[in-house]
From TrEMBL:
The keyword Glycoprotein does not apply. It comes from Ploceus nigricollis. Keywords: Leucine-rich repeat, Repeat. PANTHER family: LEUCINE-RICH REPEAT-CONTAINING PROTEIN 14B (PTHR14224:SF27), SIMILAR TO PREFERENTIALLY EXPRESSED ANTIGEN IN MELANOMA-LIKE 3 (PTHR14224). GO terms for cellular component: cytoplasm. Belongs to the PRAME family. LRRC14 subfamily. Gene3D superfamilies: Ribonuclease Inhibitor. This is Leucine-rich repeat-containing protein 14B.
Length: 519
């Protein structure tokens, strides 16, 4: 649909569409029109105008989320446009704001908030080139370091050194940009642009480097911490992290695969788990927790019962939960507050059908996102699943890829899903009858693409027709065979791939050396 624009916004578009004229005229523009002109420039991808607007920003704060979000003049939210031209112009404009030789009293800017930028799969910008979270981290760190070098070498007005701007950003650090980010954080006190890390994600880092950089970020300000791929953090390291660093504002915590493994627990490990639970209990703001691919059988209560604030998001996918774990979740105070829940990789119909039903009934009034991938949900379970989902009237997202459901069962389920008023995204499995007879679940990566693609396309069309006939064109239905889109993985997949190849090569060399010794 076409988004309505006010006459003010149309005028702003006309003004910035002639870049040369707009740049010459900025000094005559009223200060309160800068936000309007910024959004119009961003929509039209007028990089030079964006740069000059930021370089001459006359207000106390510059909040990307608010500037690009829905406004009375133009309702469309542009914060999901991570256009490279626009974002680079913003950040270089910020650098030049510091270097701009205008009178110091004209410089009011104190806070720049870049955290409102959203990384999404489909981009609508004309240049088709995005600047993801990793690249934004890289560029801002480079600009801070370059700025400091320039200020030390050049003859600047005394007022330039009095400029102090807090730049709020979600940092994404890997081996490849680690040194640059560390340098920028080390020189934070001397630099007019001060990186303030609100969220931190690390992939492909040694533990030594992770522990070093996390202390530099000022953990007292951190609201979100994601330790994801190829950071070999195990339980003893997590205890060390929580013992040495305080995270008073932390709201969201993501731990890497295999952080916990209760199958090889000793008495010391049990005490360690208790300590970690108690430390998390001290994080009074913590409402989001992701611990996928750890083995936590029978220990969920020990880990979560110390929490004083109810969780709104919980990801315990592939954590080998038993009936006692599910019973604790269903009866805990968290159940009534869960807005996002991921129980993938558990045989729900076989292990705890009634407990799962109870859990879902407790969180049904607030649940927005439910993920049940590889849960052995079969045709015979669909009616009960519908019964479970019926009260979930706020559900926006339902993912159930990897379940052995037939085309007929999927059609039955889709007919029901049309009745959920808030639903926007559905990720459904390739129907079982599209695979060769005898296929076993969960399907391994080698076999996942070996299905009748023509038949699948026909079924997918029929499922979309069900949505269409129910006037639910607003629902997006898809089958991501290798998992949902992850902007961070997408942006750094070359580095991730190189790391995996290197690890495989090292493992192979160790195996060969051991084999040769035995021979």
């Amino acid at each position: 649909r076409t988004t309505m624009k006010s006459l003010r916004f149309i005028s702003a578009e006309a003004f910035v569409s002639n870049a040369e004229f707009a740049r010459k005229s900025l000094r005559a523009v009223a200060h309160d029109l800068f936000p309007l002109l910024f959004k119009a420039s961003y929509l039209l991808e007028q990089g030079e105008v964006i740069h000059d607007l930021v370089e001459n920003w006359p207000l106390f704060d510059f909040n990307m989320g608010k500037l690009l979000g829905a406004t009375l003049d133009y309702e469309e939210d542009l914060s999901h446009r991570t256009c490279s031209v626009c974002l680079e112009s913003c950040l270089t404009g910020l650098r030049d704001y510091v270097l701009n030789q205008s009178s110091p009293y004209m410089k009011k800017l104190k806070v720049v908030d870049l955290t409102g930028i959203k990384d999404v799969e489909v981009q609508f910008c004309k240049c088709k080139k995005t600047m993801g979270r990793w690249a934004r981290t890289q560029l801002l760190s480079k600009l801070c370091s370059d700025l400091l070098v320039y200020l030390q070498q050049a003859q600047c007005l005394p007022g330039t050194f009095e400029v102090s701007i807090n730049v709020l950003i979600d940092l994404f650090v890997t081996e490849r940009n680690y040194d640059l980010v560390v340098q920028a954080l080390l020189k934070k006190c001397s630099c007019p642009l001060k990186i303030c890390c609100v969220a931190f994600r690390s992939d492909n880092l040694t533990l030594q480097k992770f522990f070093y950089i996390i202390k530099l970020t000022d953990p007292s300000l951190l609201r979100k911490l994601e330790i994801v791929h190829n950071v070999h953090l195990e339980m003893e390291h997590l205890e060390m992290l929580f013992n040495s660093i305080h995270f008073p504002l932390l709201m969201s915590l993501t731990l890497p695969a295999r952080t916990f493994n209760v199958r090889r627990f000793t008495a010391t490990d049990e005490q360690m788990l208790t300590n970690i639970g108690e430390k998390m209990g001290e994080m009074t703001q913590l409402t989001e927790l992701s611990m996928s691919f750890s083995i936590l059988t029978g220990r969920i209560q020990k880990l979560l019962s110390p929490l004083k604030t109810p969780l709104k998001m919980l990801d315990v996918s592939n954590c080998s939960l038993n009936h006692a774990d599910m019973a604790f979740l269903a009866n805990s105070f968290h159940a009534n507050h869960l807005e996002a829940l991921d129980l993938s990789g558990h045989d729900i119909p076989e292990l705890y059908p009634s407990t799962f039903f109870k859990l879902l009934s407790h969180c049904s009034s607030v649940l927005r996102s439910l993920t049940l991938e590889d849960c052995n949900i079969q045709d015979t379970h669909v009616n009960r699943l519908i019964l479970c989902l019926s009260p979930c009237q706020k559900l926006q997202e339902f993912k159930f890829v990897g379940n052995p459901l037939s085309s007929q069962a999927l059609k039955h389920l889709f007919t029901f899903l049309c009745e959920l008023p808030m639903l926007k995204n559905v990720e459904f499995p390739v129907p079982r009858d599209c695979y060769p007879i005898g296929i076993t679940y969960p399907i391994d990566d080698a076999s996942v693409c070996r299905f009748d693609h023509q038949k699948y396309e026909r079924v997918a069309e029929e499922l979309n027709l069900i949505l269409l006939q129910a006037n639910r064109e607003d629902v997006k239905a898809s089958t991501p065979l290798f998992g949902s889109y992850d902007a961070a993985v997408q942006e750094t997949n070359n580095e991730l791939g190189a790391y995996l190849i290197k690890s495989f090569k090292e493992t192979l060399e160790k195996f060969t050396a051991s084999f040769n010794k035995m021979s």
